[in-house]
Structure formats: C-alpha cells, structure tokens
Amino acid sequence: MKNRIITSIIGIPIIFILIIWNIIGLLILCSIISLIASYEIYKMLPAKKTRTITEKIIFLNILISICLPSIFSIFIINEISEYSGVLFSIYIVFVSLSTLVYVTIFSYKKEIFQNIGFWKFWIYTTFIGLCIAHFPLLYNHESNGESLTIMIIGLTFTFDIFSLLIGKRFGKTKIFPRISPNKSLQGYIGGFISLFPILFLLQMILGISSSFLIFFILIITIGFSSLLGDLYESYIKRQAKIKDSGSIIPGHGGILDRTDSILSNIIVFYWIVIWLKI
Length: 278
Known about the structure:
- By secondary structure, the protein is mostly helical.
- It has helices at 2-21, 23-43, 53-75, 84-104, 118-139, 145-170, 185-206, 212-240, 255-276.
- It is built from 9 helices and no strands.
- The radius of gyration is 19 Å and the shape is globular.
C-alpha cells in the first residue's frame, strides 16, 4: 500500500501535466502506454528460453494492432465528426483484425496461445489499441476536449482509489471472486458514491456545464465501465495464469493493471460526449 500511495503521488501529477501541456504531451503519454502495453501483452504468452521467429512476428503484430488505431486517429483528428466516428471505430477494428490474422496465420502454433486462446488474445489486443486511440479524439473534441480528458481521468482515479480504500476497510461481499478476488460490492458502491462530489467539483473547476440528468447518466456509465474494464483485464490475466501484467509501476503492477479502468472509460466517455453533446 505504501508503494502504491507513493507511486500515485508522483505519477498522477505527471499525467495531468502532460495532458495540460498540449496535444504533444498527450501523444507522448499514449505512446508510452502503447509500447509498454504491447510488451506486457506479449509477455502473457508462455515464456521460453529463446524466442522463435513466430513469436517475434506475433510481438510485431501486437505492436501494430495497438499502435495502428492511435496513428489513424492522429491523422484524422481534425476531420472526424460524430457521424464518421462510428465508421472510424469499425474500420480500425477490421484493420486490426485483418493485420493480426495475416501476420499470424502462416506461423500460428496452437501451443503459443494455449492459455488465453487465439481469439480472446486478439480481441483483448484490439480492445487496448482502440481505447488508446480515443484519447487524442477526446482531447481534440471542439473547445473543451482538454477539460473533458482531465475530467474522465480524474473521475477514474477517484473511483479506483475509493473502491480500493473502502473495499479494504469494509469489503466483505465479493462480486466476482474467481476473476478478481479483491473486488467487493462495498468497495464498488464506495467508489460509485465518490464520483458525485468529484464530478460536481470538476464541473465547476473545468467550466463544463450540462444537465444533472446527463451527468447522472455519466456517473452510472463510468462506474459500470470501470468495473468491466478491471474485470476484463483480470480475466485475461487469469487465462494467462499471471498475477500482474508487469512490474513497471511499484505497488500497482504493470501499465495494464493501472490503466484498465481508464482505457475502458475513455472510449465509453468519448461516445457519451458525442451522443449527448456535452
């Protein structure tokens, strides 16, 4: 817990500084997450003393599948609209799918994916890439993209922190013990309730105005999306038979362990902003 607190105190301000800096800072942050996430996903495959050419090709594919959506989003960042955005997301999914299948189909070996499963592995890889690609899209949204980006990251951190603290203190009822044994109903409710005052505070500080109904929908969605993102990553780790995705962040594990909720929230939040015109 001590390492987790120290890391958060140091890491969270750095993240917000990069975002407040400008779009370049955000792209640097996305690039770092993409590269480390690619390596962590690759390491989920069964370890061997020496990596074969097949495994190197798979790693290259993981890198492409995660980074390609972000590259596309950067190039069309000033062209995307609420109508073309849906087509963009679908297009990226199919591009990632075709890329993955193409580079692995000739060298596919069942034992490489024996723990996770080929399609589960691909879907998770594509999901991570697609979520990261929505950071620059949200950041560039009309005139308040920067504020919205800060808002969703702040809300996610709030939910995670209060879920952890309240869960450790009062958590008794486990939600999905087989997937994530540390997740409790009490912790989830505590994290959910914490979103209300923080959202109200961020709304005033960032100057984002909207109806109470819209922000209530936003809180409900974020609370649910945070839980699903966390459980999804936990499920993949259980399939890969690992405890943490990595060890790069002291007290937290890997980059995927720390960003699971943020990645699931960013894509959901982006489309809420588009469809509800926040």
